Amino acid sequence: GMLALPVAALAISAGPVVPSQPFDALFSASDLGLQPLAGRKALITGASSGIGKAAACALASCGVDLVLVARREDRLTEIADEIYRRGLGVHVTTLVGDVVEGETLYEELERLAAAEDGPDIVIANAGGAFGKANVGSEDLGDVRAMLDVNVFGAIKTVRALMPSLLAKQRGHVMFIGSIAGLEAYEGGSTYCAAKAAIHAFCKALRYETYGSGVR
């Protein structure tokens, strides 16, 4: 379905601090009614803050069951508690883990995907920009971290769910890209490269899934 998310819900920062996200603003998303969403199930990575948190609250308000994945258990619990407090009639599953390193998480995602009521919406959102140094002075740890979470983590997440989505011949797969993947900026070389990689990956995936029922 088409969601109109309030600006406050989607605001993100180029720095490490995510702006305040009051729950009332996050749950005020409106369903435009072009496609009913109630009864579907969405898996969202990086769901503890930022766009992932906003998407979780917006989808819950439209009657979508959720599988929320992130490393910060307390944040996931807070979101789930808030959804249940509002009596939205949806079920929330929280999974604590790292989309890059977590083999146990990967196996759990495969198990969930194979279930008859497994997620049919996948939002590969986990990511981030670390550091602002120019090429030649950047921290290689930051470089590796950005490539891992923005590229490998996203691809690994979709890899766990795609076989089941294709077998069921239905589902929507979304990645959170960035204008940085199309227009580079100084001090963002690796982040721009990572988001450009996701753009290319999505384009290839779109070709591969044409006619499969998976969008």
From TrEMBL:
UniProt cross-references to PANTHER family, sorted A to Z:
DEHYDROGENASE/REDUCTASE SDR FAMILY MEMBER 7B, DEHYDROGENASE_REDUCTASE SDR FAMILY MEMBER 7B
Q: SUPFAM superfamilies of this UniProt entry?
A: NAD(P)-binding Rossmann-fold domains
Tell me, in a sentence or two, what this protein's role is. Answer: Putative oxidoreductase.
Q: Where is the signal peptide?
A: 1-19
Origin, by domain of life?
Eukaryota
* Source taxonomy: Eukaryota, Haptista, Haptophyta, Prymnesiophyceae, Isochrysidales
| A Gene Ontology molecular function term of the record | oxidoreductase activity
List residues traversing the bilayer.
none
- Similarity remark: Belongs to the short-chain dehydrogenases/reductases (SDR) family.
Keyword terms, alphabetized: Oxidoreductase, Signal
Name the UniProt record assigns to this protein? SDR family NAD(P)-dependent oxidoreductase
Tell me which GO cellular component terms the UniProt record holds: membrane
Q: Identify the Pfam families for this entry.
A: adh_short
